[in-house]
């Protein structure tokens, strides 16, 4: 009897309705759930172990309403307003001009700064578009608007077009021969973004050259001569900062993020940064002797600015080599208290030297 009663049991098992497919498997079968992961790097990130995945900020999961509210802010972040301070490199030669200033001088200086700001904004957007895959692998750059998905490539392309149109309007508003440093900077920077940034040493030298072009633009504004020693000083200073940034990237993210880093080692960068720092200090002192506006002023006062310059270089090397910082020179300038105080003292000494110079 027991065997007879237990024989229908398989029939009862077959009669049980099939268990519904789990909701999570259904969700994975829907292609719509992967629309936010249009880039291969993001799909690869999800396949990594949990402890190796980037933070969720690197994967665009925000709801459309939040994206629309943050888009103006994200577009502004895309052109990096925090980096616009670099374009003030146009100003130093104009400030060293001891002739009385008028409204036209202020307008020309502001116009030159605007041109470099527009040109650099174009370069920033183009660079972020080209590097969005690689930036997702960087612990800091993965939060940039395009890499994080807050700004789509289409929106970034439209922004690039608008900036290019604005830059064209800026150029045609004045004599073309006067703005050739800005045009050369734009061409060189775009070539950098499209491939030269992957060539070791060449990448850092191009960045430093951009600041010398800013100085040249300032010299054209005032119709003055650009001192060779000042050009060398600015070039070597910016080269040191550029090499320091690459060293910081090697220690923070390894060599995978930037192909050019394969041509560097930490020991090589350490020696090179110190060598360029020495060149910066020597060329600065020689510039003080060469520039008439400074040499004929209070020579003792301007001589005191040399220790300030050396201290600033030493402090940066300390942050870079000892404290493993210095990856962002702009942050160092505005956030490091010792650097701020030293820069203020240096500016006061230079201003005093200029005030003692008789205007021509």
From TrEMBL:
Keywords: Membrane, Transmembrane, Transmembrane helix. CDD domains: PT_UbiA_2 (cd13963). It is a multi-pass membrane protein. It is found in: Membrane. It comes from the Bacteria. One of its GO terms (molecular function) is transferase activity, transferring alkyl or aryl (other than methyl) groups. GO terms for cellular component: membrane. Residues 1-26, 45-70 are annotated as: Disordered. The chain crosses the membrane at residues 110-130, 151-171, 226-243, 264-287, 293-317, 338-357. InterPro entries: Prenyltransferase_related, UbiA_prenyltransferase, UbiA_sf. PANTHER family: CHLOROPHYLL SYNTHASE, CHLOROPHYLL SYNTHASE, CHLOROPLASTIC. This is UbiA prenyltransferase family protein. It comes from Streptomyces sp. JL1001.
């Amino acid at each position: 009897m027991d065997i007879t009663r237990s024989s229908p049991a398989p029939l009862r098992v077959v009669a049980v309705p099939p268990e519904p497919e789990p909701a999570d498997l259904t969700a994975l079968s829907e292609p719509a759930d992967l629309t936010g992961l249009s880039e291969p790097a993001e799909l690869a990130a999800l396949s990594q172990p949990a402890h190796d995945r980037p933070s969720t900020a690197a994967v665009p999961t925000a709801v459309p309403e939040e994206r629309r509210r943050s888009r103006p802010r994200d577009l502004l972040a895309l052109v990096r307003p925090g980096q616009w301070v670099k374009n003030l490199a146009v100003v130093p030669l104009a400030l060293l001009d001891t002739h009385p200033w008028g409204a036209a001088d202020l307008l020309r200086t502001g116009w030159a700064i605007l041109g470099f700001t527009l040109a650099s904004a174009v370069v920033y957007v183009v660079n972020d578009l080209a590097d969005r895959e690689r930036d997702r692998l960087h612990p800091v750059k993965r939060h940039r608007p395009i890499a994080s998905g807050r700004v789509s490539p289409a929106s970034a392309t439209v922004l690039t077009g608008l900036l290019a149109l604005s830059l064209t309007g800026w150029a045609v508003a004045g004599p073309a021969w006067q703005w050739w440093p800005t045009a050369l900077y734009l061409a060189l920077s775009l070539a950098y973004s499209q491939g030269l940034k992957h060539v070791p040493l060449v990448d850092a030298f191009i960045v430093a050259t951009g600041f010398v072009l800013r100085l040249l633009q300032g010299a054209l504004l005032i119709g003055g001569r650009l001192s060779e020693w000042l050009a060398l000083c600015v070039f070597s200073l910016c080269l040191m900062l550029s090499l320091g940034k690459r060293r910081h990237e090697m220690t923070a993210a390894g060599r995978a993020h930037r192909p050019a880093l394969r041509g560097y080692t930490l020991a090589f960068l350490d020696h090179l940064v110190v060598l360029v720092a020495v060149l910066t200090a020597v060329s600065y002192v020689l510039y003080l002797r060469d520039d008439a506006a400074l040499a004929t002023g209070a020579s003792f006062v301007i001589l005191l600015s040399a220790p300030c310059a050396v201290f600033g270089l030493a402090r940066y090397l300390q942050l870079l080599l000892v404290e493993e910082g210095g990856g962002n020179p702009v942050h160092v300038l505005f956030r490091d208290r010792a650097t701020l105080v030293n820069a203020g003292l240096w500016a006061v000494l230079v201003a005093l030297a200029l005030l003692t110079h008789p205007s021509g």
